Amino acid sequence: RKEVEQDPGPFNVPEGATVAFNCTYSNSASQSFFWYRQDCRKEPKLLMSVYSSGNEDGRFTAQLNRASQYISLLIRDSKLSDSATYLCVVRSSASKIIFGSGTRLSIRP
Amino acid sequence: DGGITQSPKYLFRKEGQNVTLSCEQNLNHDAMYWYRQDPGQGLRLIYYSQIVNDFQKGDIAEGYSVSREKKESFPLTVTSAQKNPTAFYLCASSTPGHRNTIYFGEGSWLTVV
């Protein structure tokens, strides 16, 4: 079993839609969690950290469920510019960082 | 400006040759990482280093080697033992600690011809 698993998609949704991604992790001792965004042929960039209490940044909301060992990302009112691959990232120790394989999102006009 | 610099951005290698990818950071980060990404795939950890003169194998270390002689530098050598080296290579760095995020260089595209 992979340490971090994501639905690869692709998710193809109309502009303005709400879309949600989930990610599961296998190491219950994992300490911190992040969502990264990666555009085609570019390096990943931090979208947001995920806190136990849940957190929101504009149209983006991240949630963590430690009991079930999953994190989620919700995008509201999706824009064309949201089209990208979204990577779930888990710190399993102070220095070991594991990436999910990514979920591809395509927003259509 | 602080950041991570990878070079070269594009590299072509003949089969049987070793190549070295450079990664330099001026963020004063202790930890550095090398990931490999194949088309349409996620990132896979090759090697990581938590401190100077120390490094650990990741999930796909076979056919690769690294060194960490200086805090700011973490070069990756792709050896001839790596059977399928064509990929996008990403270097990253981070400060230790659970809340600290990881920052990436722009990546190096390696093609075996």
Fill in the keyword field for this structure.
heterodimer, A: 109 residues, mainly beta, six-stranded mixed β-sheet, B: 113 residues, seven-stranded mixed β-sheet, 11 strands, 0% helix
Concise summary:
The complex is a heterodimer of chains A (109) and B (113). Chain A has strands spanning 4-6, 11-14, 19-25, 32-38, 45-50, 55-57, 60-65, 70-75, 84-91, 97-99, 103-108.
Which chains share the greatest interface?
A: A-B, 23 and 25 residues
Sheet with the most strands of chain A? 6 strands, mixed
**Total strand count of chain A, please?**
11
Order of helices and strands of chain B: EEEEEEEEEEE
- Into which percent range does the helicity of residues of chain B fall? under 10%
> Roughly what fraction of the amino acids of chain A lie in strands?
over 45%
Q: What is the average per-residue confidence, as pLDDT of chain B, rounded to a whole number? A: 91
Individual helix count of chain A: 0
Mean of pLDDT of chain A: 91
Estimated radius of gyration of chain B: 13 Å
Structure description:
The complex is a heterodimer of chains A (109) and B (113). By secondary structure, chain A is mainly beta. Helices cover 0% and strands 54% of the residues of chain A. Chain A is built from no helices and eleven strands. Chain A has strands at 4-6, 11-14, 19-25, 32-38, 45-50, 55-57, 60-65, 70-75, 84-91, 97-99, 103-108. In chain A, strands 2, 4, 5, 9, 10 and 11 form a six-stranded mixed β-sheet that branches. In chain A, strands 1-3-8-7-6 form a five-stranded antiparallel β-sheet, with no helix packed on it. In chain A, strand 9 and strand 10 form a beta hairpin. The mean pLDDT of chain A is 91. Chain B starts with a strand and ends with a strand. Chain B contains no helices and eleven strands. Chain B has 113 residues and is mainly beta. Chain B is globular, with a radius of gyration of 13 Å. The chains are: A mainly beta (109), B mainly beta (113). At the A-B interface, strand 5, strand 9 and strand 10 of A face strand 4, strand 5, strand 9 and strand 10 of B.
